[in-house]
Amino acid sequence: MANLRDIRRRIKSVKNTAQITRAMELVAAAKMKKAQNQALAGRAYADELNKVLVNLKENVDENAHPLLEKRDGNKTLTLVISADKGLCGGFNGNLLKEVNNAHTDETEYVTVGRKLRLSLMKAGNDIKADFVVVDPVPFAEARPISKYLIEQFLSGDYDCVKVAFNDFKSTMVQLPRVVQLLPIESNSLGEKQTYEGVGKGQVGETDKVTALEKEYTFEPSPEKVLDALLPQYVNFQVYQMLVESRASEHSARMVSMKSATDNANDMKDELTLQFNKLRQGAITAELLEITTAMKAME
């Protein structure tokens, strides 16, 4: 009977675990929906912003602005956007692999999220700054991050600024990426961003023609407009990467918790079957003992 008590205790423990993981799955699903809505809400704005930049860059010398200046050095500052908590599958681990692949001896880091900040510190990397972003991500909280990155780049301390984040493709697919933020490359100015792949590819010829067909009047001058627009462009890039990463995190956690719940239910079914077999065997043994005793008394 001791085995039966142990199995009954295990069944209770697994059932409690399944309830917890199921609750975490539902919470992650609700948060994922909000993050997805944030990501989708910014894509129309991103499209129009890029169309303006396509037209604007045709009227100015791109090398005249410091955020477009390409430098010969390799000193890199990388913003790493991870999760504050675990239990989200390979979300943090896969991103860490991409960060390590892009790492050089001249790379320093700025972090958002506790998990990879601790991992990078344990590896002996230099963390220049750490930012805390609440959930859901407010647009205002992207500004201090982008401002810090711009200031570090303009100071001349770094030749390149990159961002490591998880690109949200679907509920089941999140791609870890490391993309260049500064200097802003000329092709990314004209890039039609859907934020289903920030920094990937170039704007198509059809989109370029559509953007250039629109006539814009820049006041007081294209250079002044570019000077005001590029920091806003960088700020929006950082914000969109934050919400993409947050949507990826909640999606990964929801899938991970659903898998854990399913595994717990399967384990509970196996333990229940094992419990029933043992109980049936114990009952059969008792019946045999009673029958044997009755025959012995005849």
Automatic annotation (TrEMBL):
Family: Belongs to the ATPase gamma chain family.
GO cellular component, one term: proton-transporting ATP synthase complex
Residues in the signal sequence: none
Location in the cell: Cell membrane; Membrane; Thylakoid
Matches recorded under SUPFAM superfamilies: ATP synthase (F1-ATPase), gamma subunit
Name of this protein: ATP synthase gamma chain
GO biological process, one term: proton motive force-driven plasma membrane ATP synthesis
Organism: Rubritalea profundi
